[in-house]
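for the recovery benchmark. C-alpha cells below, seq after
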C-alpha cells in the first residue's frame, strides 16, 4: 500500500529492515552453486521466515526445509517447491499433516521411522534418516554442535542397522555452524568412513546447513568440487539447507537512543532489546556489528549499549564512536535478518519491532506492525 512506503529516516523504531538487493545478491550466489553442481538448495526457515520475500527466494532456490509442522505449513502455503522437514520426534497428529504437505521427511531414529511407517509409506513420502558422524569441527559453544558428546541429534554408526531399513531413500547429516567449505569436506570424509557402505544405496543426501556460502571469502570452489565428487561417485541428489547464507548481511535493526546513564562507561539506553529482539547476542553470545562504530577504545568515545527490560544483563556490549551519541540518535545494527525475527519475544511486555523491506528503489515498505494485541494474545 502506498501509505506504507517511507524513507528510512521516517521508519519508527525499533524496526527490522530487510535489504531486497542484498538478499537477491545472496540468492544469485546460491543459484550459481546449484547450476554448477546439480545440488538443490533449500531455505532453512529456522533462520529466516519472512514469507513476504518467499516468492523472490523461490525464483532461485528449490524450496524450503522445516523443523516442525508450522514451518512446513508456512513453506507449503507461501514458498512452493520441495518441502523437507526434520524433527527429533513427531506426534501422530503432526505426521498425518506433514505427510499431506511435505515431499521429504527425515527421522532422528529407527524407532520414529517405524512408528510412523504406515503414514509415510501410504502417502509416498521420501523418507530419510539423520546420521551423526561423531566428528566435530566447531570451536564454539557445544550448544551449537550436533556432534558434541551426548548429542540427541542423529543416529551414531554403532546404533545404525546393518541393512538400510525398507523404504529409506536418503541420509541427512548436519554438523556445521557458520563455517567454511573445509569443515564440510572434513565432515564428509568422516561420513564416508563410517557410513560409506550406505551411500550407494540411497537416492539423496542432505548435507544440512551451517554453510556460510555467501560470506565474503567463503571457498565456493572447494564446495563445488566436493559436491561434484559426491554426485559423480555416489549418483545421489544432494541437498543443502542453509538459513544464514540466504539472508546473511541482508538486514538491519534500527534503534534509537532513549536515555544515557552516567557510569564509569556511559550507558546508552536503546529502544531495542538484546533479550527480546536479538536473543543470540546473549545466547551465543556474540557482538553484533554496528554501523560507524569501533571496538572499545578504538574511537574517541566508548559507550555501553544497554536495553530497557528489567533483566540486568540485557546489554548488547561496548562500542566506540567518533562523537558521543545523543538522545534521539539512531543506531543501525547490521546482519540482523537472521535468527532475530524468528526468535524474538515480548518479555517485560516489550513491543516487537516493525518489519520493513528496503526496496531496490530506496523506499521502505512497512510489511508488519505489532501492537498490544500481539503481546496479549500470546498469553491467553
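predicted aa per position
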Amino acid at each position: 500500500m502506498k501509505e506504507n512506503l517511507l524513507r528510512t529516516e521516517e521508519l519508527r523504531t525499533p524496526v527490522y529492515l530487510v535489504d531486497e538487493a542484498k538478499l537477491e545478491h545472496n540468492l544469485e550466489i546460491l543459484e550459481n552453486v546449484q547450476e554448477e553442481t546439480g545440488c538443490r538448495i533449500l531455505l532453512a526457515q529456522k533462520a529466516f521466515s519472512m514469507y513476504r520475500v518467499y516468492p523472490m527466494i523461490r525464483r532461485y532456490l528449490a524450496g524450503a526445509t522445516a523443523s516442525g509442522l508450522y514451518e512446513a505449513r508456512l513453506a507449503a502455503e507461501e514458498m512452493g517447491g520441495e518441502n523437507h522437514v526434520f524433527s527429533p520426534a513427531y506426534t501422530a497428529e503432526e505426521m498425518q499433516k506433514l505427510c499431506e504437505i511435505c515431499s521429504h521427511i527425515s527421522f532422528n531414529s529407527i524407532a520414529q521411522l517405524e512408528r510412523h511407517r504406515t503414514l509415510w509409506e501410504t502417502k509416498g513420502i521420501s523418507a530419510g534418516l539423520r546420521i551423526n558422524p561423531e566428528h566435530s569441527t566447531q570451536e564454539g559453544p557445544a550448544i551449537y554442535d550436533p556432534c558434541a558428546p551426548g548429542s540427541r541429534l542423529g543416529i551414531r554408526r554403532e546404533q545404525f542397522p546393518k541393512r538400510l531399513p525398507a523404504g529409506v531413500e536418503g541420509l541427512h547429516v548436519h554438523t556445521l555452524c557458520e563455517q567454511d567449505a573445509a569443515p564440510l569436506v572434513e565432515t564428509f570424509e568422516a561420513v564416508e568412513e563410517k557410513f560409506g557402505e550406505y551411500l550407494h544405496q540411497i537416492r539423496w543426501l542432505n548435507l544440512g546447513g551451517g554453510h556460510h556460502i555467501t560470506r565474503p571469502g567463503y571457498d565456493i570452489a572447494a564446495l563445488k568440487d566436493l559436491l561434484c565428487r559426491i554426485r559423480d561417485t555416489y549418483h545421489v541428489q544432494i541437498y543443502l539447507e542453509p538459513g544464514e547464507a540466504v539472508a546473511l548481511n541482508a538486514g538491519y535493526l534500527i534503534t534509537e537512543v532513549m536515555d544515557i546513564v552516567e557510569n564509569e562507561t556511559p550507558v546508552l539506553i536503546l529502544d531495542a532489546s538484546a533479550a527480546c529482539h536479538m536473543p543470540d547476542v546473549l545466547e551465543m553470545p556474540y557482538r553484533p556489528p554496528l554501523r560507524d562504530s569501533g571496538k572499545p577504545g578504538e574511537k574517541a568515545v566508548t559507550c555501553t549499549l544497554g536495553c530497557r527490560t528489567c533483566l540486568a544483563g540485557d546489554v548488547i556490549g561496548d562500542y566506540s564512536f567518533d562523537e558521543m551519541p545523543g538522545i534521539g540518535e539512531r543506531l543501525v545494527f547490521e546482519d540482523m535478518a537472521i535468527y532475530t525475527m524468528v526468535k524474538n519475544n515480548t518479555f517485560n511486555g516489550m513491543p516487537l519491532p516493525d518489519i520493513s523491506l528496503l526496496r531496490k528503489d530506496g523506499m521502505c515498505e512497512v510489511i508488519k506492525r505489532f501492537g498490544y494485541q500481539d503481546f496479549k494474545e500470546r498469553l491467553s
